[in-house]
Protein 1
Amino acid sequence: MSTIIDVRTTYEAFANGADLSNLGEVEIYGWARTNRNSGQIGFIELHDGTAFKSIQVVYSNDTDNYDAVAHITTAAAVKVTGTLVMTPEMKQPFEIHAKTVELLGDVSEDYPLQKKRTSLEFLREIAYLRPRANTFQAVFRVRSVLAMAVHSFFQERGFVYVHTPEITGNDAEGAGSVFTISTEGTPHPYTDFFGTKASLTVSGQLHVEAFALAFKDVYTFGPTFRAEKSNTKRHASEFWMIEPEMAFTDLNGDMECIEACIKYCIRYVLEKCPDEMAFFSTWIEKGRMDQLNAVLNTPFTRMEYTDGIKLLQEAVKNGHKFDYNKIEWGMDLQSEHERYLTEEVVKGPTFLINYPKEIKAFYMRENDDGKTVAACDLLVPGEGEIVGGSQREERYDILKAKMDKLGNTQGLEWYLNLRKYGGCKHAGFGIGFDRLLMYITGIDNIRDTEPYPRTSNALKY
Ligand code: 4AD
Ligand code: MG
């Protein structure tokens, strides 16, 4: 009888001081990363997917079918039996001395993913194989852990998780970039499946606001769809968004929650994924871990939009060249402007607050100056905006007037009613989950943070 082991639990047991030297015969399943040998002795780097680390399998003349084992190639699925041997003088604390290495799945010669370093662009073309590559082992494990971090942050604080619908009749952001759903060749608003126009959601916010007015603190966390044609490193057509909403909370409370959440997530990932984070810090963005640790120890800066504009104008005056160089109050900031403020001026995460009302969504609360709304975007170095939030307009008359003017009242009467039926001050925000993952890992293209990225003209898998 042999004991079935895997890399993760074996390393965990080792770290907890367990004696692994007398397990008897062990059995492990995985894939060969490399296989090298010299006559008498050979080494397979076995990766079993349970951890970022691999385990070394040593085979020799004592191993059954030495010659066959020596011919096992990269990516082959294997079953190994043998004994776990402690190697305190080596880089890896233990290895397996193989009795048998059984080939479970051979690899044909056209296997495209060889051991040598391959570019992220090339790996994107083979999205079904890239989870095997080191970088994506690290990205997708961190993605999984980060999702857990998000839930654990909100659940610890008593927030109720709400599954807002993916199919909706409204364009929450009023940005018009929706994917229409239809069962007919040409969507028709009356005869089509829902008997009304339907689309994939661009935000769960409006739906979740109703829940905040019943549960106080709530959040949604799910896929979001935007038909933006912008072909950038930070936009995907399908991405995940975390949208919390808090009753009896203003813009300050909103920003406190955002900051606490981002820091919690960073801390959680640094603690749970030390190997992956060390990898990013070495291969993807030098010193990423140190930078994140610095972020944990610094309060996020808060800057008025109006002051941001002044700083950008000064920069232009001093010779700084932006692609879009005409800086004036009222403009929507481009990512180059956001990045200048967070990278060059503040050199750290920055809340830009109180934006002109014309460039922000209809539901944001109008400030007393009549010109701005109580909005906050969180900008981070390397990326620009990763979070957008606001205090919501809770005053029925003001909101109705705005919506009437925009022409989006119809179908959203229920949203307005929330202001009549025990409405109250409330605020919320949306974190782009994929952008947060980019920020933590240092990966600079959103396509490399999603298992199967969806962007315009790209739907291969
Ligand atoms: O700023 P946005 O559009 O805000 C909302 O949707 C609000 N309803 C949020 C709220 O207050 N509940 O989007 C929020 C975040 C952005 O800051 C960005 O990180 C991300 O979602 N995001 C995208 N991420 C990837 N690809 C895209 N096309 C994205 N569009 C927005
Ligand atoms: Mg935004």
Protein 2
Amino acid sequence: MPIISATAIAHPNIAFIKYWGDLDPSLHIPANGSISMNLEGLITRTTVSFDPSISQDQFMLNGASTKVEELERVRKLLDRVRQLATMSAYARVESQNNFPLAAGIASSAAGFAALSLAASHAAGLILNEKDLSRLARTGSGSACRSIPGGFVEWSAGHDDKDSYAYSIASPDYWDLVDSIALVSREGKPTSSSTGHYLADTSPLQVARIADAPHRLELCREAILERDFEKLAWVVELDSNLMHAVMITSTPPLLYWQPASVAIMRAVQSWRRNGTPVCYTIDAGPNVHVLCPAEVAESVAIQLRQLTGVIQVLTAHPGGPAIIENNHPNKGETDF
Ligand code: DP6
């Protein structure tokens, strides 16, 4: 067998309605559905080469070897691909992010989306978008949302077959901008995987999950109606609910820094004064500030003036994961 390789590109995504807590942690079947927007301009490019001459899988991220746990997660996904393609060769995986890892932007979503597409393509599998999304989910839950383009909903489902993401609106449907205000470059002290595991220790998680279908509906409607006020209300509520669960877990997870809170306060006061803007925060201290493109430049300028803001990155809605030669995946094989 010759060396067979493929390169894929994927974007990270920002969740408007968050995934927090699993029904089945081994397959990342989430406790609730979620909705996100892909982030244009932020890119992970991954090349997978199946090479019969190597004796184990290898993984380099931004030119360096990774921690054993990260290699293990990559290996697990490659095993799944090898099983589907009935092949045995090990692979060399080389991944590059064009955004700093230490920026605290979830890189695992883009990473596992690009890995799933590149590995399945190199292995000769032609998977449709749904099955690629399912495959990416097994690497990292939120990665299933980086397979389709634009605004994406992850239907929670109940098992491996029916838990996957699909696009609800294309990237050009609504020109929203995510201005990511970095307040720290340190890696997160507690991984999302650990956080998902702890979610059920919070007495608030039951209420958060019970109300999730309502928030998903409002968020979906807000996107389809391009109704920023409605979006802002439900996005901030959902972020605050997730952080309420985090703070009340055992042990508690408090991801916010003083500067994160200062930005949240500033965003709320700008909105009270008439600027269409809202915030959302993932499992880290950096704040994603959403607004329509018309006001994005002035919002970014104001964010840069706040104490504690190190840098502001901006992203419009991004497209789907693609093979490097620019052919979006249109395969039809089921698994
Ligand atoms: C707070 O998808 O990173 O960003 O499946 O363990 O890799 P694993 O977790 P991950 O969790 C994402 C958590 C979040 C919210 C979200 O993106 O929905």
